[in-house]
Automatic annotation (TrEMBL):
Taxonomy, superkingdom: Eukaryota
Organism: Populus trichocarpa (Western balsam poplar)
Transmembrane regions: 12-29, 41-60, 66-86, 133-152, 164-189, 287-312, 332-350, 404-425
GO MF annotation list: ceramide cholinephosphotransferase activity; sphingomyelin synthase activity
GO cellular component terms listed in the entry, alphabetical order: endoplasmic reticulum membrane; Golgi membrane; plasma membrane
Example GO biological process: ceramide biosynthetic process
Protein name (Swiss-Prot/TrEMBL): Sphingomyelin synthase-like domain-containing protein
Amino acid sequence: MRRWVSPPKTTAGLGLAAISYVVVDYLRHLSPTWHERLQPALWSILALIAVSRVPFYKHWSSEFRAAIPFVASMLFMLTCLLFEALSVRFVTAVLGLDWHSDTSPLPDTGQWLLLSLNEKLPETLVEILRARIIGLHHFLMLFMMLAFSVLFDSVEAPGLGLGARYMFTMAIGRLLRAITFVSTILPSARPWCAAARFRVPPYPHHWAQKYYVPYASDANAIRQIINQDIAYADTGEYLGDYQPDWGSMNFLINFLRPTPAEGASWYSLLKKAGGGCNDLLYSGHMLVAVLTAMAWTEAYGGCSSAFIWLLVMHSAQREIRERHHYTVDCVVAIYVGILLWKMTGFIWPAKDSMRSRRLAKLERIQGRLIQAAKDSDMDEVRELLKEVELGTQESQNKGHSKHLWLFSCATIFSALTIVLLAFTWTSDG
């Protein structure tokens, strides 16, 4: 009599692959020669191992069903990135380059703390904290490795379902981030950045000339505008902006504020907007890092998850140390990323939820399973266990279909938001 045994799951390979990837990639700073040799070899080995597993993968049907949510989440992500790029250029351009150069950075106690630790910690530890061990592309690649590990049964299938959740969560995070930093413009921790990267006018947009400049530094003027609740100052004649002919996209001129040197194409301006130069609350790099760590912890777990979180913390202190962000940007990104990942748990089931579905199904067929075992009917036992597996997958796929409308609604909402803001600004201007 043969006993049915569930296939073993790979437990350590993914963690070792992740650590190897980070270590080999860091060799670019320690030994470029060894990096050039080892990195192609590592990727070739990982690719060959993954390809060798493709013929034995048993969850292609669930991957195909998850493809539609994945594509929808990618489209939503691209829409949010477009809105974010527009917002980045706007908050950089609206006050002009003179404001960026002349405005002092905000006091940041996190930066002070790191500077004080440099004086107290051993030099070796300080050098480790300063080292550029991990970057944005590393976290994205670590997630790719996690998603492809479904080929080895290290992560619950479908991998595209996990990818859909990751991209959808990131898209929501990027949208909320753009809405946050465009609401109140904060000075950069690097005052020279805007003049070095952007060619926007040095003076403010006429909105800022009317509603901000006359009241920016005079306490009595601020008190008076609070009491009157109306912009009372006579600003005289506005300084005008360059007006290129962008056809149907002319409404973007008020957002992007092009100059004659770069005003030929609105699309080229948006491509240059990545990263921005004033402070963008919260950190987009940290959001990606936290989402990768959350996905890794929930889908895979183990000691390698602790390693990923250590990389997140190292990346956070480097963002603050190098003044790419204020401490508040990293702190907010960490808890926003955690909460957003928890909120989107319906898209891709965690191992615990899959296990609970299987147990519930087993309870329902317990009597039939016991009777089949008593009758030594192993074919019936196999059929019942197969029914449990298929029932769990069916329940999961129904969950994908049930929530697919959310992706479409989110995409439409974000697109309408961009159009509404554009035409509101145009009509006011």
